[in-house]
Amino acid sequence: MSNEPSASGAPLFGPDRRRFFLVGAVAAAGLGTGIGLLSESNTRASVNRHGAAAPGTPAARSRYLQIVAHEDDDLLFMTPDLSESLRAGSAHLTVYLSAGESKAGVPPDTHDVNAYVAERETGLRTAYALMLGVRDRWRQETLTAGSLRLQSYSLVDRPDIRLVFMLLPDGRDPRASLSWHTLGKLWSAEGHPERCGWTQAPEGSPYRRCLSREDVLTALTDLIQSFRPTVVRAQDTAPDERYSADHPDHIAAARFAGEAVRRYVARHPDRLVLQVNYRDYNIRNLAVNLSEADNKFKQRVFAAYSAHDYRINAENPHWDAYEARMVYRWPRGTGFTATDTVYAVGGGRLVAWRRTGGRWSAPRFLGDPGGPLAPAVATAGPVVLGLRSDTGEIVAYDQRGWRSLGRPDPAKIRNQAGTPVAVVDGSGMVAAFVRNGRGGVSARFLGASGWSHAWTDLPGIDLKQVASPQPKKKKHLRYGDVQDGLAAVVTDGGLIELFAATRSQILWWRQRAQGKPLVFAGALPVAGAIAPLSAEQADGRIRVLFREPWTARTLTISRQVAAKLWDSPAVVSAARGLDGEPPVTGRPPRVQLVGVPAPLPGGGELCALGADGRLHVASRSGGTKVAWRAIGR
């Protein structure tokens, strides 16, 4: 590899969304030397020889920022999303908060700590070049963000691809000035500006300094300000406590990322930033959900990195488990559309596009829910439901504004709830469902007299099915196994049916009468399912779509609405899907997406959130030739 140093303090430069949505490596073109200097002019050239996106294309409009803790977190937990959006030709900036040195050089280990940090960075550059299919040649630069000078590398053949290293100590380094868990201690240091952690850099290095919480946040916000991402990828702010424990650095990095995005959006409320959060260590407790081809490519990419990391395969036996999976912390699902309205979450706030007289408005932010929202929302009748990602509260928005529906869990269960789903039955009652932190399903109902008094648990779930491997200091050690990604459908008779996947089966609830609670109807005759699910009624049949564990095939199981017995599962060859999202049918737009398409009520139009930060809509009346159009400039 060749490094070509440039002048210190150089300015910054200037999402294929998946197997079924990939356009291909499109188009090339001239990026300026400052972030945000992409030309929007049209060009005849669709690609250049290095695969950069052509100006004016959706891929050029899509700009991805990854903020992670360590130098392998993006490769292990955000891929294949990362590799596919790179190949689509979009600009990428990845920020690594920790130097990742761990216990290198701590006796009895004899490795040189600074050499190990440099080797991990080399491995990353090699892996990124492999994913892009370009030469492994990088230009080393020093960037200024806030008051910090940051180490940075940009690809010579693709200068819109940049890696930035903040070099804070790894959480497992006992030599750090704050001892263990520097990132977590800085996150918790709000109101203590004097607390700082020295970076892992040699004495005399321009990157050697003591960073405070505000230093980190200001630098991240400044990077966002300069880069102007349309999509921000981060880790898990509230890992699922039912399964393997996460690294404290992952959690702190995710929280720093979320706060930096919120600060940026507060300055620029007109800019829509879509956020995607990924589960980390605990994905190894879930079924394999990547195809064989994706798994093999991810293994190849990680091998290119791990050739430069002596600790791989020495301390953690789970590398192959991470390579076979990629799971969203909060799947978006298909519940974000309402009559003539589409909802999304941008920078933790609710945003809406509204259609009037056949014309769509620009996106508009809808008040303050009191704290940041998780990326997924659900609409039903007059309300929109979301999850406060900082507290685990379910919040509701209607014409009167925001209100809290409280947490579906007792105080001893922390911020563990999933995102809600909601439907309206034939009586007009709104039913809201959420996977609670105890591994079950909780429900609340909105009728003529208002919301029901409290969240109630649906029957039929064994809440002692999962023995958590989390530290035994927790009192609540056994849980149910329901996964995020519930699916609800209303029959032609106005009755609700609800489906939830565990790691071994699909559970089923149904209404016996409109306006009444749901009863447990049993488990579907399937050998297992990968959440999230999708469900629909068509032609007098209820269909549940799910992905098969280990094969990643899309299957469907169905029955006549009036029947109780289900047919055998069948393969759906024409289904569209995203790893971590529910399978859907229909023709997607030829652009990078965040989430899957969903129909407007009535089925006349399909809607999708583009990684370019725009709403994409299409008429469903065009047969196989669906013409998608983007809303906004």
Describe this structure in words.
- The N terminus is likely disordered.
- The longest helix has 20 residues.
- It is globular and about 75 Å long.
- The chain starts with a strand and ends with a strand.
- α4 packs antiparallel against α8 and α6 crosses α7.
- The chain has 9 helices and 38 strands.
- The chain is an alpha+beta fold and 633 residues long.
Topology:
Layout: E1 2-3, H1 58-61, E2 63-68, H2 73-77, H3 81-87, E3 91-98, H4 113-132, E4 137-145, E5 148-155, E6 161-168, H5 182-187, E7 196-198, E8 210-212, H6 213-227, E9 231-234, H7 248-267, E10 274-277, H8 292-306, H9 319-323, E11 337-338, E12 341-346, E13 349-356, E14 359-360, E15 364-365, E16 373-380, E17 383-388, E18 394-398, E19 401-404, E20 421-424, E21 430-435, E22 441-447, E23 450-451, E24 456-457, E25 466-467, E26 478-479, E27 487-490, E28 496-501, E29 506-511, E30 518-523, E31 530-538, E32 541-547, E33 554-560, E34 570-571, E35 598-599, E36 605-609, E37 615-619, E38 628-631
Helix pairs in contact: 4-8, 6-7
Name the shape in a single word. Answer: globular
Q: What's the average pLDDT? A: 88
Which residues form runs of ≥5 with pLDDT under 50?
Answer: 1-47
Cα distance, first to last residue? 40 Å
Radius of gyration: 24 Å
Q: How many strand segments?
A: 38
Give the strand order of the largest sheet, numbering strands 1, 2, ... along the chain. 1-4-5-6-3-2-9-10
Number of helices: 9
Structural class: alpha+beta
Strand content: 25-35%
Helicity, in percent?
10-25%
The biggest beta sheet is recorded as: 8 strands, mixed
